[in-house]
Amino acid sequence: MDVDCLVIGGGVAGCALGWRLRRAGMRVLVLELRDAWGKQKLCGGILGVSSLSELVASFGRGAFGELALVRPPHHRFRCLGKETVSRCTYATVLRKRLDDWLLARYVETGGEVRDRMRVLALDQRARVVSCRDLRTGARCEFSYGTLVGADGALSVVRRLATGEPQSAVMALEGMVRCTCEDIVFAYDPKKRGYCWYIPSGVDANVGCMSYGDDATQCRAWLSSFCEDMGIALPVLRGAPIPTGEDILLRADEHIFLAGDAAGLASPIDGGGIHFALASARMLAASLLGEDPYEEAMQPVVEKLADKAAKRDEIYLLNSLLIAGSGKALESE
Length: 332
Ligand SMILES: Cc1cc2nc3c(=O)[nH]c(=O)nc-3n(C[C@H](O)[C@H](O)[C@H](O)COP(=O)(O)OP(=O)(O)OC[C@H]3O[C@@H](n4cnc5c(N)ncnc54)[C@H](O)[C@@H]3O)c2cc1C
Known about the structure:
The mean pLDDT is 94. The chain has one domain: FAD/NAD(P)-binding domain (3-Layer(bba) Sandwich). It is α/β, with parallel strands linked by helices and 332 residues long. Strands 1, 2, 7, 8, 9, 10, 16 and 17 form an 8-stranded mixed sheet that branches. Helix 1 packs parallel to helix 7 (273-287) and helix 7 (273-287) packs antiparallel against helix 8 (293-309). The N and C termini lie far apart (40 Å). It has helices spanning 12-23, 49-59, 62-66, 95-108, 156-162, 215-229, 273-287, 293-309, 311-323; strands at residues 2-8, 28-31, 46-47, 74-79, 82-87, 91-92, 112-114, 117-123, 128-133, 139-149, 168-177, 183-188, 193-199, 203-210, 237-242, 250-252, 255-257. It has 9 helices and 17 strands. It binds flavin-adenine dinucleotide.
């Protein structure tokens, strides 16, 4: 099969990009590893001001109602035994709802998705991707004009195109019944990470990520956080989050990376929905003849690199702010 743009990964970046390119009349194919409609991405579902602006700018205000966004009243920041409370500026969404909604927008444009496809090999010279159809076991080949790796953290496209693995930290998370309407973040400057409780309606997401600790230590930390919150530790799953330290937007003349695959995540809290939407928008514009992708993304890349370099300082400052009953720094 021969397409203008072959997108690997039908998550936020992949569907948002496919939606834009299809509307401009390009022949697009999205290949997804999991069940396109059955996937359950691990995610807190926090949408900051930048993510909300991206959604409105692309899909209009109607998106908010369709996504059934929740507005938690407060933010509770905990650190070293202190807690500060401030008005919450975030909205939250059930991540599966967001993913299914974006996929529906792409499919509405006539965009095609082939799911349960495992990428096996990439021939950069011939511009061919070989895959295994996990349903039938058949091997298939796809020729592309442009290839986009939107396959998340630890991107296979990125590894095959560059030979280098992507840097990532493992986050742990699970779902509980909602017992508190506020978002709660518990920071630890030494662990350079945080535990979270994020309500999104009937359910809430709890999790932990750390740039300093391993998964076993994260589990123990999350367990004591849940105890503090008066909730039982749920069944936990792990997922990689880019560290934001090795951003790569382009692997060769015809291969681009977007969202987590490009390493575009906050080096402080791992948030990446905004970057997935923004990179999809700028990459689509570039493929349609507007500003080159790398040039358009330059300010974002510089900002993330700066934050990654100052990670320890920011965690320390956050803890001082919380302890001094100030407000913690927000990532966006
Ligand atoms: C535990 C956790 C909590 C988070 N909480 C938040 C939050 O509250 N707010 C926020 O803004 N961000 C959050 N993030 C980050 C956010 O989820 C990501 O930054 C965002 O999903 C990136 O979108 P993406 O499209 O690049 O990747 P993804 O959403 O991961 O999509 C990648 C897609 O590619 C598919 N795929 C993977 N490998 C292959 C392959 N080889 N072939 C084909 N398809 C493949 C996947 O199944 C998936 O559908 C969180 C992340 C984690 C892990």
